[in-house]
Write a structure and sequence with these properties.
heterodimer, A: 266 residues, mainly alpha, MetI-like fold, B: 265 residues, 0% strand, elongated
Chain lengths: 266, 265
């Protein structure tokens, strides 16, 4: 009892302390910049950055860039889900599929995603399809490997029970294997979401004429420093929100799993 | 267990066939001009370029691998130092964690590559920049895992140590860190992969050396076989580092694996 009370007490304090620390950091930033301890060329005061951020958000520049990046990012991300979850299911279920594809997967896996950008640029130019493909490549491995793992770790007893009740193969996959593997499939999706954001920014920095990654790098190269910071603030917010969004999604659609496993444990 | 071993042996054989078939098909299609030879040179040409750039003449690839490895390792080490210590300290002192939490939660999900332009302003284009970005990216997974590990320490263990009157520092060193170690190591593994990705990215975007620069440069000057050779080198480096890590992990964490196995039985 005592511990719970202590926790609730500290929870009230926690947000408070943390917020003060954050505000102090921003205040320190502001002071260092205003006193010109660091060249204002690199380090504009935070108030100025936030002002530019506000202006660029209200006039639609930053939201537009983010939307462009989102289009590419989710294009590649959903393509990876659409292709890799079924492939993972097949590889997890059928030994033949696994034996055929696993070595190819393993030989491409050490090749890190940004390294394929130059090749993809040769074939697809610097348009949207290039970025979508690179995102697709980057997301494929976590999704595929987690799906295979999830399917392989399905309790054999479950499958045999379903078989005993005379369920068809398709029904077993749909009603037993897929639900049982879904927590791990979801964890693959969660891992690859931040990866897709990183990769889309990288490919926009390397070959693009718009998008948030291009926006940041272009403004740095033309020494529009507050605009650069504004772009980075935007990216930070997007990263934070994506994370939150996915956690909310996961909680909503996978809560049956959590409830169930908690019951098992308790 | 036996079943898995059996499976692995079988995989190796058919797998080899599939890979050989894949590359033979590539070679054939490219030689016949069915896929565009300028963009997809035959595998033998790529291997030849790889051998030439690695072992003959000015050994350009070797120079670039040196730069890449140096930056990746330096950044990775900083990431390990910062991530482990920050994670341990915040894991032990709850109030410190509460103070830092909002700041960390804002910085952590931010894609590391987004800070490249700002880092350029402060550090210019030298190796320092690559190392800083790699350290930044490598820190977070290690930090999160260390924090989880330290917080997840079995309270019974800590209380037992307390009963035996171990001083606080000894409890941290002899109980908390060893018991968090598996988590910490898994953070190291994740960060190693991150470090490799980020070193290539930073080299592609800013540097004038390293494997990332090499593949960008060769592709822009249409030395396509060399570009593929560079990619091959990146893959080899990635594979070797990962294998090395697994070996080291098996060697140094053998006590943990033995322990968990015994417990399971």
């Amino acid at each position: 009892m005592e511990t719970t009370r202590g926790q609730t007490k500290s929870r009230g304090l926690r947000g408070w302390k943390g917020a003060i620390f954050l505000l102090c950091l921003i205040g320190l930033w502001e002071m260092v910049a205003r006193l010109h301890l660091v060249s204002a060329l690199y380090f504009p005061p935070m108030s100025k950055n936030m002002g530019v951020f506000y202006r660029l958000t209200v006039d639609g520049t930053l939201p537009l860039q983010v939307l462009l990046s989102f289009g590419r990012m989710f294009g590649g991300y959903f393509l990876a889900i659409a292709l890799m979850v079924p492939l993972g299911l097949a590889m997890g279920l059928f030994r033949f599929c696994f034996n055929t594809f696993e070595p190819l997967v393993e030989s491409f896996r050490p090749l890190c995603p940004p390294a394929i950008i130059p090749v993809v640029m040769l074939f697809l130019g610097i348009g949207d399809s290039m970025k979508m493909f690179v995102v697709f490549y980057a997301c494929s491995f976590p999704i595929l490997l987690n799906t295979i793992d999830g399917v392989r770790n399905v309790d054999v007893v479950l499958v045999n029970t379903a078989r005993t009740f005379g369920l068809s193969r398709l029904a077993i996959i749909r009603k037993v294997v897929l639900p049982a593997a879904s927590p791990q499939i979801m964890s693959g999706l969660r891992i690859s979401l931040p990866i897709s954001l990183i990769v889309v920014i990288v490919s926009e920095m390397i070959g693009s004429t718009n998008g948030i990654g291009h926006f940041i790098l272009l403004n740095q190269r033309t020494f529009n420093v507050p605009e650069t910071y504004a772009g980075v603030i935007m990216v930070a917010m997007v990263g934070y929100l994506l994370n939150r969004l996915f956690l909310g999604f996961d909680r909503r659609f996978m809560h049956w799993h959590r409830g169930w496993s908690a019951e098992q444990a308790g | 267990m036996d079943f898995k071993h059996h499976l692995r042996g079988e995989t190796k054989f058919t797998g080899l066939l599939v890979i050989l078939f894949f590359f033979a098909l590539w070679e054939f299609l490219s030689r016949q001009g069915i896929i565009y030879t300028a963009y997809f040179p035959p595998v033998t040409t790529i291997v030849e370029a790889f051998v030439r750039e690695t072992f003959l003449g000015d050994r350009e690839l070797v120079t670039h691998v040196g730069f890449t490895l140096y930056r990746a390792f330096a950044g990775y080490l900083f990431g390990i130092l910062i991530g482990t210590s920050l994670g341990t300290v915040t894991g032990i002192w709850r109030s410190l964690y509460q103070t830092l939490e909002p700041t960390i939660e804002i910085l952590r999900p931010m894609p590391s590559v987004a800070i490249i332009p700002i880092a350029i302003l402060f550090m210019g284009m030298g190796s320092r920049l690559n190392i800083f970005i790699i350290a930044w990216a490598a820190t977070w997974p290690i930090f999160v895992n260390t924090l989880d590990g330290v917080r997840g320490v079995d309270l019974t263990l800590v209380n037992t140590a307390r009963t035996f009157q171990l001083p606080r520092r000894a409890i941290i060193r002899k109980v908390m860190i060893p018991s968090a170690l598996p988590y910490i190591i898994s953070g190291y593994r994740i960060s190693l992969g991150t470090a490799l990705v980020v070193v290539v990215v930073t080299e592609m975007v800013v540097s004038g050396s390293g494997l990332g620069f090499y593949i960008m440069n060769t592709s822009q000057s249409f030395r396509i076989p060399e570009m593929f050779a560079g990619m091959l080198m990146i893959a080899i480096v990635g594979y070797l580092l990962n294998t090395l890590f697994v070996r080291l992990d098996n060697h140094f964490m053998a006590w943990h694996k033995r322990l968990t196995k015994k417990e399971a039985v």
